[in-house]
Amino acid sequence: MDDKFKLENQLCFRLYTASRLLTQAYHPLLGEHGLTYPQYLVLLVLWEKDEQPVNDIAKRLLLETNTVTPLLKRMEAEDIVTRSKGQEDARQMIVKLTKKGRGLQKKLTDVPETVGNAVICESVTPETVPGLFVMLDDIIKQLKQ
Amino acid sequence: MDDKFKLENQLCFRLYTASRLLTQAYHPLLGEHGLTYPQYLVLLVLWEKDEQPVNDIAKRLLLETNTVTPLLKRMEAEDIVTRSKGQEDARQMIVKLTKKGRGLQKKLTDVPETVGNAVICESVTPETVPGLFVMLDDIIKQLKQ
DNA sequence: TATATTTGCATCGTGAACGATATAAATAAC
DNA sequence: GTTATTTATATCGTTCACGATGCAAATATA
After folding, report:
1. d(CA A46, CA A96)
2. Do A76 and A82 contact (CB within 8 A), yes or no?
3. Cβ within 8 Å, pair A124-B135
4. Chain A residues closer than 8 Å to B11 by CB
């Protein structure tokens, strides 16, 4: 009885574990450059579009500003980004890549492929990944409300 | 150029986000009983088999003991589990459910279904979830080494 | 049996996550 | 134009995660 409580029947535990383990796979690659995985996510956002307010970065990553603000301060301390008051709206804090922050893109050029290769296995291949993306995107969309 | 750095092409970001959002979905249901999601996972493990050493619980959840130990201490403080030195091996710390810990199973009986329903959507249905489980299990197995 | 190694757990420090709350600037309502 | 509300960000407290390290009990080795 109570198979519903079995760990093997839990979607959330699988997501939680897969997320942690895959983040761990990034660790040696990013740590070499003094980065954490959430900091790497901020870089992905800024590499796509530089000079964004805190709020835009947080929304893109589906995080709260109270998570992102301290993270950005650490990145500022490491000279990866600058933070400066917005011109038109003084409430905003505009985050901008430094030369070092932009330069990290080249240094991390092999990271996506390295990590991508690490997860390739029986049921997870270039052919099946798009289907996995659809399901995860649906779950995220659903839970965002 | 550099589509490989686009957030939309990242498996890890999807897992990370889906995991966080699904954990958030548990929050109101568990918080009502003073539980966090990782504490709920410990309960799932102990409900399956009571009286386990810290190490067995940690291994089951693929966590380190330095994560699990403080978590168990909080659960002990909340009178959900007891922790006592092992008889045959004095290094072990045996974790056992209290009456309250066992009783929580009945109180949380609706949680799996409630959360399960919350993720049902277009591409995630009782028919497609098993396929998703296979892929996530493969990823976990692969990353465990 | 004395010493070395392994094992199980704990402590410490750092960096997320996140709920709750605070503050100042911008905007809306009166 | 003054007051009320919303918005953008920050601060605070608690709980994970997790690498690094410490310590005592158990086991292996000499």
Report:
1. 8
2. yes
3. yes
4. 22, 116, 119, 129, 132-133
Inspect the interface and report whether the beta carbons of A136 and B18 lie closer than 8 Å: yes
Q: In this predicted model, what pLDDT tens digit does every residue of B102-116 receive, in sequence order?
A: 999 999 999 999 999
List CB contacts (< 8 A) between B49 and chain A.
none
Distance to chain A for B57, nearest Cα, Å = 12
Q: Cβ of A18 and B136 within 8 Å?
A: yes
Per-residue pLDDT tens for B72-93? 999 999 999 999 999 999 999 9
**Residue from A106, A102, A115, A103 nearest A22 by CA:** A115
Question: In A32-128, which ranges are continuous DSSP H helix?
Answer: 37-48, 54-61, 65-77, 99-107, 111-119
Three-class DSSP labels, chain B: CCHHHCHHHCHHHHHHHHHHHHHHHHHHHHHCCCCCHHHHHHHHHHHHCCCEEHHHHHHHHCCCHHHHHHHHHHHHHCCCEEEEECCCCCCCEEEEECHHHHHHHHHCCCHHHHHHHHHCECCECCCCHHHHHHHHHHHHHHHCC
Chain A interface, best mutation among B11, B40, B110, B124, by max A CB count within 10 A: B11
Q: How far is the CA of B87 from the C1' of C1 (A)?
A: 26
Is residue A38 within 8 A of residue A71, CB to CB? The reply is yes
Residues B18-50 have pLDDT tens digits of 999 999 999 999 999 999 999 999 999 999 999
pLDDT of residue B37: 98
Query: What span, in angstroms and rounded, lies between the C-alpha atoms of B120 and B115?
Result: 9
Asked if A67 and A83 touch (Cβ cutoff 8 Å), the reply is no
**Residue A27: both structure tokens together:** 């660790």
Strand D bases, protein C-beta under 7 A: 7-13, 15-21, 24-27
